[in-house]
Amino acid sequence: MNKLRILFEILLVSTRLGLTSFGGPTAHLGYFHTEYVRRKKWMDEKSYADLVALSQFLPGPASSQVGIGVGVMRGGVLGGLTSFIGFTLPSVIVLMIFASLLTTFDIADAGWIHGLKIVAVVIVAHAIMGMSKNLAPDIKRKVIALLALIGTLLFQSVFTQVGVILIAALIGYIIFKDHEDDGKKAASFPIKKRFSAICLMLFFILLFALPAFRELTGSYWVAVIDSFYRAGALVFGGGHVVLPLLEQELVPMGWITAEEFLAGYGATQAVPGPLFTFAAYLGTVMNGWTGGLIATAAIFLPAFLLILGTLPFWDILRNNDKVKGAVMGVNAAVIGILISALYTPIWTSSILKPVDFALAAILFVMLVHFKLPPWVIVVTGAAGGMLIGFM
């Protein structure tokens, strides 16, 4: 009974966070710290810092992985699942409803949809500004970011994204292996290493088996699961970086139009919770609510397997200087990938006229200098897009 009470408490707290956590991954981590560390005291500052560091090391949605980790430390694996459901479900439902309206009433060409696409330009530009200060602060990492930008712009494919990340990891391994930080750290996570090893094995089995099974069977649903699983498994840097991966997977296949894609990305900024719930919108546009649920499960599954699979081994990884160097290289490459995504498909599909750029500039100033919350930017962008439609 005590276990059920703990799970119910996790569900209540995480659902409240899922309904109120606007602002993207960095903001989510702030909300989590306030709730889990300061108010609930479910963990101390050191344990929370260790968990955040691990989520930054892994590919996938950082804030979701931290939420899962908090749930695991509070209530075991079921606690992690409960925490994930509470934090994610509110935005999943809202985005699936939005997708249903989009397809039912054929509103893809509406002015406010165009406004949401312009919002996407502003949100990603702001994300690049904030992340570049931490991920590419010196000239070496700026060069890595520049090379990643050039590579992803000139050779646009899923394999390019993966190749850039691997090359950046190798460069970081070579040039940052002697980088000094704040010393050794330790943490304790309540998961058995045998269970974690099984999770890691399953992660890699699915990563390599799904593409092969997709080719062998020609199954549409296997192809959908493969596309979303691979996007969730190979993205470093959070929800903004998943944009080019998903765009290159879905739009060329004819599963979704570029206009529908960017409209959904803009709408995702208006809801609280993780940016990876964008998959719920995409899956619903493609195949109704069933598609939305399958796409959501597929894109978040790698995050589950990775966080559960690495918690007990984190001390070994994070205290290895060479591993830390590789991660520094990858983080710098993320900036280049983001800038590439900002140009295409976001900018090229959204800023079509001078008035579009004017609206983008207004929204950017509201977000960066007036520091208005993201939902205000989204509402203003939608309204501005409607006004542009009448001009």
Automatic annotation (TrEMBL):
Record has Ribosomal protein as a keyword: no
Membrane topology summary: Multi-pass membrane protein
Gene Ontology cellular-component terms listed: plasma membrane
Entry's transmembrane regions: 84-105, 111-131, 143-175, 195-213, 220-243, 292-314, 326-346, 358-390
Keyword GTP-binding: no
Main localization category: membrane
Keywords: Cell membrane, Membrane, Transmembrane, Transmembrane helix
One GO molecular-function entry: chromate transmembrane transporter activity
InterPro entries given in the database record: Chr_Tranpt_l_chain, Chromate_transpt
Name by which UniProt lists this protein: Chromate transport protein
